[in-house]
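Suppose you are handed a protein chain with no further information: no name, no annotation, nothing but its sequence. What can you learn? This example shows the usual starting point.
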Amino acid sequence: MTQLYHDNQNDVRRMTDGEEEFVTAVQSRHAALERNKQCLLAYLYNRLHRIRNMRWRFGSVLTSDVKQCTSETEQQFLSHYNKLLARHMQSIGKSGLDLTSSLEPPRSLYVSVRALRDHGALETDTGHIIELKKDCQ
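A reasonable first move is to predict its three-dimensional structure. Written in structure tokens, the prediction is:
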């Protein structure tokens, strides 16, 4: 890519001097550079996506096999991602919430609720009325 870039720069200089035959070469090299850049960015995005998925599946520490296959920059990305995720989980509620503990959705759509104090009647968004009384489910 560096060679294509330098070749393009040289031909652009020649074009500014009035030599028009380099226009096609400059345009095709520029298109090749843009395509290569797009492919590299897609590849890097895919790698970072896989690293994020490994964090959620296996935890905050990578195995030695995976570490050998990652670059220093990718390891730094994982470290920063771990810190951001930990900070976010600690900010939820009073004592934090571990979002990584269970990645499977609940089997039931219903939740048991025990009221700590009498609340009275509560209307849900579907129009049902629920009576919340202290220590009742």
